[in-house]
Amino acid sequence: MRSSVRIIVDAMGGDNAPEAVVKGALSVHGQGGVEIILAGREEEILAAAGGSVPAGVQVVDAREVIEICDDPATAFKRKKDSSVTVGLTMLKNGEGDAFVSAGSTGALLSAATLIVKRVRGIRRAALCPVIPTATGRAVLIDCGANAECTAEYLTQFAYLGSFYARRVLGVKRPRVGLLNIGAEPSKGDALRHETYPILQAAGERGELNFIGNIEAKEAILGGCDVIVSDGFAGNIMLKSIEGVGSFLGREVKGMFLRSGLSKMCALLMKGSLRTFKEKIDPDTIGGTAFIGISKPVIKAHGSSGERAIAQAVRQAAAVARSGIIADIEANVSRMHPSAEQL
Amino acid sequence: MRSSVRIIVDAMGGDNAPEAVVKGALSVHGQGGVEIILAGREEEILAAAGGSVPAGVQVVDAREVIEICDDPATAFKRKKDSSVTVGLTMLKNGEGDAFVSAGSTGALLSAATLIVKRVRGIRRAALCPVIPTATGRAVLIDCGANAECTAEYLTQFAYLGSFYARRVLGVKRPRVGLLNIGAEPSKGDALRHETYPILQAAGERGELNFIGNIEAKEAILGGCDVIVSDGFAGNIMLKSIEGVGSFLGREVKGMFLRSGLSKMCALLMKGSLRTFKEKIDPDTIGGTAFIGISKPVIKAHGSSGERAIAQAVRQAAAVARSGIIADIEANVSRMHPSAEQL
Predict the structure, then answer these.
(1) What local confidence, expressed as pLDDT, does residue A237 receive?
(2) How far apart are CA A334 and CA A341, in angstroms?
(3) To pair with A64 at 20 to 30 A between CA atoms, which of A75, A78, A131, A294?
(4) In chain A, which residues have pLDDT < 50?
């Protein structure tokens, strides 16, 4: 059996907290060495767990809850006894190996950056979801933490995403593409023009497997393993994928519900339909890692149900065991625009 | 019958030119008053048409062809006898009412801007495709012509898109949304922060039906009629939609091809499947209008087949008849950031 890994879960964050969060987290407890630590209002956690938690599960009482209406930048400071502040402080102090929350992204990012801190030398932490593609999956970095980026940020994202794809997804030589509006190096805006040669130089030094610019369509069809973007365009891409997935998912469902005959077809094709549904279901993917923070922090979807929380906890365990943070620490000196001039 | 409208078609542009372009254009000739003018190598056009063209179709000989490898900014000048240069010059001179091409977007945009010119006071022409949404369709402006934008450009796009939705799509009070990474006015980057209050003021003056920021997912689910974006993020959105549509389209197809039973289901559900396919088929939508140019110019998809060309010609006729350019000319003085300070 693998060595144990302690996952601190924010029991109070998300639309379905604490019930679904507690149940989802507990469903993974004990599997493959995962140990669950639940942070939040103790009596609510115990009620959600059906009166008591299994042996080995730790419940850490935290009386406050960060709400969507709280200012994300300051919520964790004003609410020092919130599940997020308490849980991240435990992570910082080594009383757990990773933190999972389905609460406010902004508040979690601020709190993680200021409590747990970024890896030294990393300019910005990035949201790094894994998206389904026609041929497998890809890492999209950043997708919303940094609306405005510099070439240095994008360069760091390229390395961080590449480490994530290698360490967590197991891709040997991750193909890194710069998200752009055309494939030629001349395409795009000033930020892309500035970033392209830096990534190209990193490719020539053998530090990245840089394949050049990539258009959103080609990325979704499987053209690369790491999609490097500023947080604005990356978020537009992620939300477009979610939107079309939701829209077409409903269309397919409607198609099978139209008549008695089509309903019979739905029964006949049950297995295929389940596979299709899983492909477009965000819950299958799990959470979004905050990469660049010095310890693993995973944001689960706000609407996460039990299954999504369980998946995010497994993902947190995988990140904690992957060695990605050691990779980042060891390579941070290479991730600067000036490096190619050495 | 409606009054006649003359559509000049670039017979040499696109992956399937001249055959599919000529056939597609001729299939619309005479319908609802549409008259076709074909620009390109006469002998190739006649061969594609089966030896001769129907009565009333004009063929304008142009010996050169703009290729993908030509520099988009200068191709139309160096190739003065190209189908694009000849056709757009006719449009400028009033010898036709709209121009359709499936050739290089960049070359067409440069040529249209420099030969036909923008409406006076319009800073940048924008690519304005119509995208399918869960509840109907929406205009996305810009989606690639302008990778870098100012608040003034975005303000103009908001008006241009609103006129397009009203005049061409027939939406009474088009809901205009600013594409952003969150709904709150504080979300996004400096460009969005600067643009938001200008559009808000235009909304308060009753000139736009501004509904605030919109996320990509909500836009795809039908949250607005006009999606205002810089060309970079707009292109990422458009190509993401195309990518997921293509990916999930294949998945659905594969699902129905898996076994004898599922193939039988495909037969039983033939009608629904056709409707689904049409929803995700870019050919159903037709072309992308270049809005801001002083006469109608429509870019058809490079891979357009006959049906897509026919659709783009119909769309060009609709734009030519819509009165949108008169709308733009009459309102251009309102479209400036300073207007809200008057």
Answers:
(1) 97
(2) 11
(3) A294
(4) 1, 339-342
